[in-house]
Amino acid sequence: MQVAILCGGLGTRIREETELKPKPMIEIGRRPILWHIMQYYSSFGHNDFVLCTGYKSDVIKQYFLNYRNFSQDIEIDLRADTVSNLEQTEVLPPWKIRIQNTGIHTQTGSRLKQAMQHVDDDLFLATYGDGVANIDISAVVAHHKQSGKLATVTAVRPSSRFGELAIEGNTVTSFSEKPQTGQGWINGGFFVFHRSVFERLPENQNDIELEKNVLEELSEQGELSVYRHDGFWQCMDTSREMELLETYWENGNAPWKRW
């Protein structure tokens, strides 16, 4: 299935990182978080991507145009006008990537509306370009097909803003850094859509929000199915969350790493 990834936002809540690049290009383990997301979908066999870009779209284009050179150490001989790799050649992922500039100030629903010109089938997957999880994508797709609805959203339990303490008397017996809360579900950002959801939206309108307009309307119509995910999920809205994801990766226990 094709995967549409929303990559066009301004990333204002992590401005210190997004002055020079879009948020999906912020690196975790020396790779953009967008790369991690694409690798995750690829591990389930989904290798056809539509990147809905906007803010600093050229940075994303340049990364994939020069993917091999960005991914490896290289030697440049200016006199000979040659470039060679200094390490064993990386096996390139089997991705087809369509990069579409959907506008800097375009809202998420309107971005997906524009993406329909590059989506070939009736069903497609969609997600945001700033979050990772260990969601079973195959199970989400199977759940969606069984539901008979126009769309499926993955529900997750958000992480607490603060560390959780277990206390006995005057002693802390355990400390958990930003654990998942036991109450409430939120939009986890891993979707399955039927293309008709967006084809019926008005043309040339850039202010349609996926959450406020599209998902709310689908829920009112009884056309929004939910897949509940109790496992790992983490967005990257702040520098603290970026550092948390980096720590997972550096420690070799990134829950989203399936490759």
Automatic annotation (TrEMBL):
It comes from Aliiroseovarius salicola. This is Glucose-1-phosphate cytidylyltransferase. SUPFAM superfamilies: Nucleotide-diphospho-sugar transferases. It is an enzyme of class 2 (transferase). InterPro entries: G1P_cyt_trans, G1P_cyt_trans-like, NTP_transferase_dom, Nucleotide-diphossugar_trans. Residues 5-233 form the Nucleotidyl transferase domain. The keyword Nucleotidyltransferase applies. Pfam families: NTP_transferase. Its EC number is 2.7.7.33. GO terms for molecular function: glucose-1-phosphate cytidylyltransferase activity. PANTHER family: GLUCOSE-1-PHOSPHATE CYTIDYLYLTRANSFERASE (PTHR47183:SF1), GLUCOSE-1-PHOSPHATE CYTIDYLYLTRANSFERASE-RELATED (PTHR47183). Keywords: Nucleotidyltransferase, Transferase.
